Amino acid sequence: MLRRRPFILTSWPASVAILLLVVAWGPQLGRTQQPTPRVPRVKVAAILPSPANDLSWTQALHAGLQQLEREGRIEYAFTESVEPAAAERVLRRFAERHPDLIIAHSGTYKDAVFTVASQFPELKFAWSSFGSRDTAPNVAAYDTPIWEASYLAGELAASVSKTGKLGFVGGLALPGCRAILNAFRSGAQRRRPELDAVAVYVGSFVDIAKAKALALSLADRGVDVMSTCGNGPARGTIEAARERKVWVIGYVYDMTSLAPDHVLGSLVWDGYRGMRQLIDDVARGTFLPAKYYAATSREAITTFQLNAAAMPALPLGAVQGLERSRQELREGTLRIPISFQ
Length: 341
What we know:
Blueprint (H helix, E strand, L loop, with lengths): L13 H12 L16 E6 L9 H14 L3 E6 L7 H9 L5 E4 L5 H10 L5 E4 L10 E4 L3 H15 L5 E5 L4 H17 L5 E5 L6 H13 L4 E5 L1 H14 L2 E6 L10 E7 L1 H14 L7 E2 L8 E5 L11 H14 L10
Parallel strand pairs: 1-2, 1-3, 3-4, 4-5, 5-11, 6-7, 6-8, 8-9, 9-10
Antiparallel strand pairs: 10-12
Helix pairs in contact: 2-9, 3-4, 5-6, 5-10, 7-8
């Protein structure tokens, strides 16, 4: 109910007081005030594959969910650095608490999330499908299509490379990593058709030391710009780039601070915008079974974020070429070829 301070009828004439009451309350007479409906906060639990402050894949999601929590949209609990072998146990532990939504933020959790979801059909789950559209009656998949941003990174890499040799250090040869590599190659070949990118895989998304060793070997073979797939591979490659004084592309989050003089830019996914539709659907009761939550660079949910500090070192026209491609992407005249093979 709308509450107002009462009028005190003391020395004023009664007729004046009555008139003021009619003016103040007239619009409210004959109807009952209804409280504004509030969307309930969604109880969200997330299992994360690496530390929540990894400046990469995990932090992108974690920071987005933290912002949603600050806005009062969710109550947020998480467990970080969960190995794939432990994912089923951690998911089941969360499921037993019956939150509104459980998020599995890794393609390596696929088997675990579908197993636990089948055992708790009354709960809602979402997983980062990373190129796959696999879902279940109570499992949604959300998209993190940074391969589109990888195309732009490839264009810039081709403009920057002095040796004409590009490299790629991936975690696992999952569809998403292959799409990032293929888009990086396609973007580079738009500028310099003769270019290719030598690809190596670590066999893990968290092994920084092995990634560094592989990246060093690429640099020793003349590679002077490297892209990445995976938080561990990105960190290891950045360490190698710093030592060999070559360029590297950050992964999913702005990784510039790790090597400001060598991170050319980062493939960035906005975890806040990427999660909002999913969270809103759960809050409103419109969560659709087996829904695939897509996202595109045209929506600016993913983008290639150039390291501004690197711009003075770039060839004349490299940044202008990148901006032209961004504009073409926004206008729909640039269609990025995507291949998961």
